[in-house]
């Protein structure tokens, strides 16, 4: 199985890390659902039922959801453009 080179929600265009808007919407959804107390496995099940691919043929699981929530790159770290704010991360990570 292939691995993603960039975190979900990002891609490289012309040598620059940019937000993949379609995937970033899924990242935002994950943060919102978790901030509302939804379990990792319920979030991944919802994404899989809707046919949202993680990468190529890889499906979502609770570990991938957890990694999205723990990845500080979504907060604008390490030269990545922010997808979520520190406040949104705190809310989602508080569960």
Question: What does this protein structure show overall?
Answer:
- This protein has 95 residues and is mainly alpha-helical.
- The chain is built from four helices and two strands; from the N terminus they run ββαααα.
- Strands 1-2 form a two-stranded antiparallel ribbon.
- α1 crosses α4.
- The longest helix is centred in the N-terminal third of the chain and has 15 residues.
- The termini are far apart.
Briefly, what is this?
The chain has helices at residues 21-35, 40-49, 62-70, 86-93; strands spanning 10-13, 16-19. With 95 residues, it is mainly alpha-helical. The mean pLDDT is 94.
Features:
95 residues; mainly alpha; two-stranded antiparallel sheet
Order of helices and strands: EEHHHH
Largest sheet: 2 strands, antiparallel
Average pLDDT for all residues = 94
Radius of gyration: 13 Å
Spans of at least 5 consecutive residues whose pLDDT stays below 50 are none
| Share of residues in helices | 40-55%
Strand content: 5-15%
Task: Summarize the SSE layout with pairings.
Blueprint: E1 10-13, E2 16-19, H1 21-35, H2 40-49, H3 62-70, H4 86-93
Antiparallel strand pairs: 1-2
